[in-house]
């Protein structure tokens, strides 16, 4: 049973609709990646699915209930969101930052129970950030800090985790570290992961399901094998891509590409 | 390593230290002043029912005055901390962003038109004035689609404040009250009575308790709005409540002391140096260190040119203005 889906949903900023009448379904306990060129609405879509951005018409449903009418704290126990490159942590320690992931479970006074502490420690451990617990989060490197933000999302103990470009600003090793961590969370704990990625080969390698967006509409959604295909990439990114096979993962990969001859299409 | 120290322990130490300093500052404030008073008299004034001239001075003049200083300092410190967290503007301060001026203008208007209004109504007017002053500044800031930079926000605050002071002055001139209004701000806390305190202090306490209850939400909101929504916070409601408690605190402080800028700016920044940026720690410490600073400033204003009083506003500004410039310098380009 897939838990999260949209029905003819439209939304945008102010008067301009970024996405019109969109219908997608997020497969349960899988890794879904949203790809598309700049400004195609992928981040906006993530924001709408996580109720950061209200939608205008249509509906987005989680477990059969519309998210716009559900209590925001109840939703925070079902889905966590890691926004794109969160701003600095302004002097919070790693432990403090991750402890705020328990917010949906707390009363007004914000007292942490034994269970809260256990979950926080677990989140620090799986993300490999335990040793920074008492360090200022601002003092960490970009990759370490990104893992701390992921730890905060994990401390929320949700089945669904959304991430907006979790690998931005990271070097190659750290990018892979973050993606492998997400893969482990998916394989070992059955978490549903939905993320926006820029790197096509990362999308192909880690995703079970890819949604290709162009100008607010879906070009195609499906397995990496169907999406990472020269015809689709031509339409989505206006590139002429050469597709091969990744010798490590056996997934399709874009070996090289050039701009389409005869200028960019519209 | 100080960094390895558990945050809660650090907070407890800083809090206990602040209470000790407050006790010492408060005692000094009781002893020193225009009239000579021995510590023995202070103790008798506080803990016995004896009476003599010295004891009377303490009970009826100094004690209410320094208690007012404690609550005004605490209120402004906490209001400043909440404003900085909510707007993510390191220069936010009730005085700099028009709230104090609004409360001041509202008080000028009511005292001119309804000179015998009961003090509760005066307080309510002060709250409404603070809300209007703050509302005008934030409204001006919201005209442009992109958020105003902290410094521009302060300029908007200065413009609105000048406008509101002009209104207060005009009303004062028209109703021949200018001297009273000028005395009120220049006089700071002198002449504070127990009956005023009985009305103002409950509001200040409500404001501080409200701030404490919202402190963990405020920390999340100060990180990022998107993170706050993702964690299940109703950010509209949080903002409304924060604004409500900010105007209660500012309004009650202005009712006692008149206009007072910079305390709300300085205290939270100083406190952050000790406990980082978790508002669960910043809010209570802003209250205690705000209280210390206000008692200190008031005592200095009474002593520096005794037996005459130097306006406490001037004392606070001597510290506040360089501090303001320092914040502008270190925070440039960083957050905000």
UniProtKB/TrEMBL annotation, chain A:
GO MF annotation, one: ATP binding
Entries under SMART domains matching the protein: AAA
Principal place of residence: membrane
GO cellular component, one term: plasma membrane
Protein name: Iron complex transport system ATP-binding protein
Subcellular location: Cell membrane
Matches recorded under Pfam families: ABC_tran
GO biological process: iron ion transport
Record keywords: ATP-binding, Cell membrane, Ion transport, Iron, Iron transport, Membrane, Nucleotide-binding, Transport
Start and end residues of each ABC transporter domain: 4-240
Membrane topology summary: Peripheral membrane protein
Superkingdom of source: Bacteria
UniProtKB/TrEMBL annotation, chain B:
Entry annotated with the keyword Transmembrane: yes
Top-level taxonomic group: Bacteria
A biological-process GO annotation: siderophore-iron import into cell
Main location: membrane
InterPro entries, A to Z: ABC_BtuC-like, ABC_transptr_permease_BtuC
Subcellular compartments: Cell membrane
Secretion signal span: none
PANTHER family to which the protein is assigned, alphabetical: FERRIC ENTEROBACTIN TRANSPORT SYSTEM PERMEASE PROTEIN, SIDEROPHORE TRANSPORT SYSTEM PERMEASE PROTEIN YFIZ-RELATED
Protein name: Iron complex transport system permease protein
Source organism of this protein record: Pelagirhabdus alkalitolerans
């Amino acid at each position: 049973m897939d838990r999260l889906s949209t029905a003819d949903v439209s939304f945008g900023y102010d008067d301009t609709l970024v996405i019109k009448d969109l219908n997608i379904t997020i497969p349960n306990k899988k890794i879904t990646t949203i790809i598309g060129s700049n400004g195609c609405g992928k981040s906006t879509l993530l924001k709408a699915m996580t109720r950061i951005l209200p939608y205008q018409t249509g509906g987005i449903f989680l477990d059969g209930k519309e998210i716009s009418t559900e209590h925001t704290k109840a939703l925070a126990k079902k889905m966590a969101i890691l926004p794109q490159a969160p701003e600095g942590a302004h002097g919070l320690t790693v432990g403090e930052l991750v402890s705020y992931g328990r917010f949906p479970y707390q009363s007004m006074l914000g007292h942490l129970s034994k269970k809260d502490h256990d979950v926080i420690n677990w989140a620090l451990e799986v993300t490999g950030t335990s040793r920074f617990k008492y360090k200022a989060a601002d003092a960490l490197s970009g990759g370490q800090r990104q893992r701390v933000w992921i730890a905060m999302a994990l401390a929320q103990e949700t089945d669904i985790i959304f991430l907006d470009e979790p690998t931005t600003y990271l070097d190659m090793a750290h990018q892979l570290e973050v993606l492998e961590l997400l893969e482990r969370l998916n394989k070992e704990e059955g978490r549903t992961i939905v993320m926006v990625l820029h790197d096509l080969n990362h999308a192909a390698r880690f995703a079970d399901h890819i949604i290709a967006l162009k100008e607010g509409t879906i070009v195609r959604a499906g397995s990496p094998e169907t999406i990472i295909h020269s015809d689709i990439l031509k339409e989505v990114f206006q590139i002429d891509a050469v597709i091969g096979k990744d010798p490590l993962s056996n997934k399709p990969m874009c070996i090289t590409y050039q701009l389409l001859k005869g200028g960019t299409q519209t | 390593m100080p960094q390895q120290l558990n945050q809660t322990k650090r907070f407890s130490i800083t809090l206990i230290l602040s209470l000790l300093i407050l006790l010492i500052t408060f005692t000094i404030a009781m002893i020193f002043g225009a009239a000579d008073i021995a510590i023995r008299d202070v103790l008798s004034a506080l803990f016995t029912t004896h009476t003599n001239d010295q004891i009377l001075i303490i009970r009826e003049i100094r004690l209410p005055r320094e208690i007012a200083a404690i609550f005004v300092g605490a209120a402004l410190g906490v209001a400043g901390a909440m404003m900085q967290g909510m707007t993510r503007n390191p220069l936010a301060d009730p005085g700099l962003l028009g709230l104090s001026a609004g409360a001041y203008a509202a008080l000028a208007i009511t005292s001119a038109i309804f000179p015998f209004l009961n003090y509760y109504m005066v307080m309510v007017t002060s709250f409404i004035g603070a809300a209007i002053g703050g509302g005008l500044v934030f409204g001006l800031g919201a005209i442009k689609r992109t958020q105003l930079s902290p410094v521009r926000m302060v300029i908007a605050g200065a413009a609105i404040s000048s406008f509101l002071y002009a209104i207060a002055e005009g009303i004062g001139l028209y109703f021949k009250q200018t001297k009273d209004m000028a005395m009120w701000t220049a006089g700071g806390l002198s002449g504070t009575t127990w009956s005023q305190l009985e009305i103002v202090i409950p509001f200040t306490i409500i404001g501080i308790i409200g701030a404490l209850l919202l402190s963990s939400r405020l920390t999340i909101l100060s990180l990022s709005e998107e993170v706050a929504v993702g964690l299940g916070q109703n950010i509209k409601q949080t903002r409304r409540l924060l604004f409500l408690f900010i105007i209660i605190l500012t309004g009650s402080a202005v009712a006692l002391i008149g206009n007072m800028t910079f305390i709300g700016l300085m205290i939270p920044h100083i406190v952050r140096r000790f406990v980082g940026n978790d508002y669960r720690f910043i809010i209570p410490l802003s209250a205690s260190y705000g209280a210390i600073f206000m008692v200190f400033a008031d005592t200095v204003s009474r002593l520096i040119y005794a037996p005459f009083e130097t306006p406490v506003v001037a004392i606070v500004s001597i510290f506040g203005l360089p501090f303001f410039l320092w914040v502008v310098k270190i925070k440039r380009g960083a957050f905000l």
